[in-house]
Amino acid sequence: MNDEHFMKQALQEARKAFEEGEVPIGAVVVQNNRIIGRGYNNVERLNDCTAHAEMIALTSAFNTLGSKYLMEATLYVTVEPCLMCAGALYWSKIGRIVYAAPDDKNSYRRATAGHSPFHPKTKLEEGPCKEESLQLMKAFFEQRR
Predict the structure, then answer these.
(1) Using one digit for the tens of pLDDT, what is the confidence trace for 4-34?
(2) Which residue numbers delimit the CMP/dCMP-type deaminase domain (predicted)?
């Protein structure tokens, strides 16, 4: 299994969000080639601005492992994390973050002038499935206009 396989799993989560009228962002947390947490945006359904895909996937992973740290895990997320999610990822000490599409409007970079808010040992990478993720976001917002 590789980055593309796990990003496609995150895209499946994003499609669930899309179908429920949520901004279509999905995430999975993987450790030892096994998904230990899944999530997609639930902001509208839960009426909770913190119910981002990353936050839900992290909580699921913490519960699966019975641990508050994810140093050996990788987060796959369809869109680059926002500042709130970056803070949670910092505290989780996650080993690696792979995102499909950049987000110039709402990513952590907008508030940090490009400085990394992640744990110093966390590796951040742009990964596969960029076009699929961008198309899903575009379709969602076109539907809303």
Answers:
(1) 999 999 999 999 999 999 999 999 999 999 9
(2) 1-111
